Amino acid sequence: MPKRKIELTHLKRMTDDTGIVEHALGNIPRRGEGYATDDNARALWLTCTWRHRIASDPTMRGKAEELQRLADIYLSFLCHAQQPDGHFHNNYSYDRSPEAEEPSDDCFGRSLWGCAVASLNLPHPDSRFAAAALFQKGFRTAEMLKHLRGRAYTLAAASLLLSCNNELSHLPRFQNFIREQAPERVEALEAQLLTAYEQNADGDWQWFEPVMTYGNGILPWALFHSYQVTGNSDALLIAEETLDFLIDKMTGEEGQVRPIGNRTWCTPDHCDHWDQQPLEVMKLALAAEQAYTALSNPEHYLSVIEKCHAWFHGENDLQQPVADSDGGCHDGLEPGGMNRNQGAESTIAYLMTELIYASSREKALSRA
């Protein structure tokens, strides 16, 4: 774990016995705006990963138990959100009733990824069984996905379960399901991302879409995952090319991380720098971590992870810390200053970046 102690205070503040509340006013949960399933999927991923990292440390037993309690809440939320056809309803009011919406591929993919991580890392066999059951029910409908980020999350999730298939021996039926169903789906989803790149990359524009919008790091991250399963050299080449392109677009004049802004995004002609969201920084760190694992000369990507970590602690365009000592994170940087609200997405993005930073440092020490 990093020298800076990571706190659960704000994560627990945002979480009630139903799930994590989506928005905050300052650091106070804004309950009237309800819950989002994709935030609960992210929170499940975070708490499972965090707990797994500290499980063998007897001095961290109390925190491990807190993380387990939170993970159970988030997994239960996903159980409630999954529909009979396998997709996950995303938006719920504070009274737990579903709000009107069109099904979200992004929510679907994030939920499958959270369930995949939980099926591998939760300590109780019945909890792993529940996560696996949700994944299996959802995965049967994955061929209906139309949008790249939903496909990318699903690709990464299936690839993870294939690469860790031996760890599913406690769930033999699920293990067999993954062996039988995932390889073909991984190849199809990987091919869809590669096709998107071939259709949109042109000259100096090395990207999957004509506009770089949100959560960009997820796309090369997914290809790094699938490469570990398929061994497709084209997937590895394009993952590296697009990640390096993204790093270039997210680097300021002084070398600091500068997220692509969500006002007009980034095109071949112009790249907006405002507003800057923590999610973008975490996704860049996530992709760089996977590149660090997959490539033989990864020092460049370790530096990227360190800069992403530093962004949250003041090495950004406003020279202000975005995260605080409670483990909360402000919702972004704006030209006129910081967005003071500390919603679920931003807080989870910060905490995940801390874990990515810690993991990458440990890998670097082991390689030294």
UniProtKB/TrEMBL annotation:
<dbReference type="InterPro" id="IPR008928">
    <property type="entry name" value="6-hairpin_glycosidase_sf"/>
</dbReference>
<dbReference type="GO" id="GO:0016740">
    <property type="term" value="F:transferase activity"/>
</dbReference>
<protein>
    <submittedName>
        <fullName>Glycosyltransferase</fullName>
    </submittedName>
</protein>
<dbReference type="GO" id="GO:0005975">
    <property type="term" value="P:carbohydrate metabolic process"/>
</dbReference>
<keyword id="KW-0808">Transferase</keyword>
